[in-house]
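Dear colleagues,

As part of the handover before I leave the project, I'm documenting each prediction I ran so the next person doesn't have to rerun anything. This entry is a single chain, and its sequence is reproduced below.
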Amino acid sequence: MALQTQPAMYDAREVYGPFLGNRWVQLVSAIIGMIMIANLQYAWTLFVPPLQEAFGWKLPAVQLGFTLFIMFETYTQPVEGYLLDRFGPKIFFTVAGILVGIGWTALAFVKSLPALYFFYALAGLGAGFVYGGSIAVAVRWFPDRRGLASGLIAAGFGGGSAPFIPIIGKILATQGYAAAFLYTGILQGFIILIVAQILRYPPWERSHSTHSTRDKTKQDEKRGFAPWEMIRTPHFWLIYIMFIFMATGGLMVTAQTKPFAKDVGIAASFVIMGVTADRISNGLGRILWGAISDKFGRENTMFVAYTLNAIFIALMPTLGRNPWLFVALIFCIMLTWGEIYSLFPPATADRFGTTYAASNYGVVYSAKGFGGILGGYVAALLVQAAGWSLVFYVSALMAFLAALGALVLRSMPKPVLPSMKSGDGGFTTQA
């Protein structure tokens, strides 16, 4: 792969210049974009109790906003991915900066639940643009190190809110939730607009649809799966179900950390410590497991990480009532959870190619929306009905089933496009 990467890098610098044509500049820029949407998901738990206290809203009602955010961030990914593949990331990051800036900033001024839902969902739509574009940049510029590149990109999202958590906590304590929404919303939107002016797809990895007609036959032999072809394979559905199962537990912890801590009597200082620790471990885990997967295989890495995640989640309702163990378990849960965002993108590209990378991962990533529903609104309803233990144990079981799914995925031969074989045009597999 190194022999292919060097000429490609030379071509990129010829087309874009020495700065924009440097793949590390592209990667770092995409990471910065991801950092700027991290608070939208991972700082949300800090805002939940203040919103409840300010307006008297119940936990399920507030967390429905989180679920809608996840849905708009994820369920629009297939369409966004198609447009990204066709036109490139620049225009979409520009739109994203506007949506994120307006959506998150406007939460400072909402007075009703419908307004909360609308603007949080609007911010989620912008976050989806950034997320899909950033992952597409990683897998296209780094075909030789997809796991590491995807891990670094995902770490920007998973760990990007870590430096903001203490700051947001301080603003919440001294100026209130409105000021925290306002300051971070303006900053995030502005920086995403700057990133938009830098990001490019590599010139050798343009969308399949942009190639000339005379090269069509040759490129058809090399192209990857289109989304409508991918979803006809059993590999896709196994990956999709695994994603849902893993997303549920981590998103539940993400959304419910502060409400759980409040119910079991964890002091506010330990909550801030725990949320900050989970941002750090979430980011580190994405890089660590992504790099490990490049060496030891995606599925082997998934099995180990997901099994550990199941164990740590299962321990939370008992050991998590101790403040120090609460912080430690939050750290460990996120260390073994965030890697889903650095393992599923390359696992998808490994099987289905990079021609439609953004579109394909957009479809896979929509599984997170179901995880958001289960880990956000449904989990809050279950807490009211049966308490915290049931929620954690069910999430742990789902994580372990995902780990077993990784072993099944490992045993499956890779799919092959219908155009690459003779016969009735259906799908086949190869070892």
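Residues 15-203+226-413 form a domain with the Growth Hormone; Chain: A; fold (CATH 1.20.1250.20). The longest strand covers residues 414-416.

All the best with the project,
I.
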